[in-house]
Amino acid sequence: MKQVVKVFKFGGSSLKDADAIKNVANILQNHKEKHLAIVVSAMGKTTNALEKVVEAHAAGTGQAFSILNDIKAQHYSIIDGLFGKDDEVYAAVNDTFVEVEWTLEEEPHENYDYMYDQIVSVGELVSSKIVSAYLNKVGLPVQWLDARDIILTDDIFREGWVQWEETLERSAKIAQPMLEKGGFILTQGFIGSTSENFTTTLGREGSDYTAAIFSYCLDAEDMTIWKDVPGVLTADPRLFENVVKLDRLSYKEAIEMTYYGAKVIHPKTIKPLQNKNIPLYVKSFIEPEGEGTLVSSEVEDNYPPMVAVEPDQCLLQISTRDFSFVAEHHISYMFKLIADLRIQVNMMQNSAISFSICINDIDDKADRFAELLKDKFKVMLDRGLEMITVRHYQQDVLDNLRRGKIVLLEERIKDTTAQMVVKDVPVMRRKLVPGKK
Ligand code: ADP
Ligand code: ASP
Ligand code: MG
């Protein structure tokens, strides 16, 4: 008989050191009797550090091994805090790092994104090995599962797209029977594999999405992501004061907020859950008994203003070279490039002879896009911008957000959403002698 399964996801901050991992084990002790699929990310900021290894290797700076050694040292110090001296987990973790060392001994691969995935994925692999060994040690029976045996993606490295049919089949064949044996299964977020068994990643911060993929495939009763905040708040507490927790949120509200930069949930997480009506809880690993936020199909109609800020935006102003109108065939040409490059369009606006598009500037896509447009259009890039999205806006909130900013693009969608692309007002030089020019 199919088990009632719950899915838990623990991210980097819940696994940042030995004490944090002990805290995770304590949370799980209270769910011992359940069939749980647990998804874990890399520990702390490991993925950022592994990105530096890839950059150093590609650029041939000679620093790749030393950055990797720091990462290894951090992991061994966490293991020291959790296990006795000769525990077999040391060898398991070492074997995983050795594979990265082999890659670093070779010439950098010509496909940067391929090389990135082979190296960066080690963060989740070692994390899952350490956490599962620790849970077993403290009496929580866990079976380690390689997410790459379940999640099949296409072969676009760094942002693999899930091949759902095969993933569902593999989950039924491999993950489901493991759960039926009893105890927990524990797997990695963020990673998958191509049909030729090359490791892929699903996009930065993608472990929430992995948990949703498993929830969908296993028909989970519900899914919980454990964060360092009490739940979904009206804005990022790192950026704003006076934020409040939202007790309930509809899937629609959650997808809108996360798409536009509410970093607490990865934007791709909501769709698989909504498709099977699986409730999502966002809870605090610091105060696990708190109620958190429930994201579900229930529609609420009384939300306070909610703000999402997406940094690192690039605004491309694209205009025709000969003053001709931006016509349908121009737009279709631009959108073909956007689709080919897998660019997320955050905002757009057009006038008679120009078209403005705001996109994320976190990789080389803005440059590649501009380069491809150059033959046919004049392109101007404005970088280092922020996109601010306010759901259920009130005028005083918008006025406050504009303070000290220059608004480059603005849009309102009905009375629910206001969006603007902004940059800071440049600091004026002070006058040396008051009154003089
Ligand atoms: P994980 O440990 O799973 O990687 P993240 O760090 O990605 O967790 O997500 C949690 C962080 O998201 C919080 O520390 C908070 O700063 C940020 N955040 C951004 N927007 C919101 C929001 N609306 N509500 C709560 N947290 C938010
Ligand atoms: N470790 C990956 C990252 O930092 C995935 C995740 O944490 O969700 O992007
Ligand atoms: Mg994260």
Structural class: alpha/beta
* CATH H-level superfamily of the largest domain: Acetylglutamate kinase-like
Q: In the residues, how many domains can be counted?
A: 2
> What's the CATH topology name of the largest domain?
Carbamate kinase
Mean pLDDT over the residues: 95
CATH architecture of the largest domain: 3-Layer(aba) Sandwich
Written overview of the protein:
The chain is an alpha/beta fold and 437 residues long. It has two domains: 5-220, Acetylglutamate kinase-like (Carbamate kinase); 306-424, VC0802-like (2-Layer Sandwich), CATH 3.30.2130. 37% of the residues lie in helices and 24% in strands. The protein contains 13 helices and 16 strands. It has helices spanning 18-29, 46-59, 64-82, 89-105, 112-120, 122-137, 164-180, 207-217, 251-259, 270-275, 328-340, 365-373, 395-402; strands spanning 5-10, 35-40, 142-144, 184-188, 191-193, 199-201, 222-227, 248-250, 280-284, 293-296, 306-320, 345-350, 354-360, 377-391, 405-413, 417-424. The strands form three sheets. Strands 3-4-2-1-7-9-10-8 form an eight-stranded mixed β-sheet, with helices on both faces. The protein has a six-stranded antiparallel β-sheet with strand order 12-13-11-14-16-15. A hairpin with a 3-residue loop joins strand 12 (345-350) and strand 13 (354-360). The longest helix is centred in the N-terminal third of the chain and has 19 residues, at 64-82. The mean pLDDT is 95. Magnesium ion binds at residues 11-12, 205.
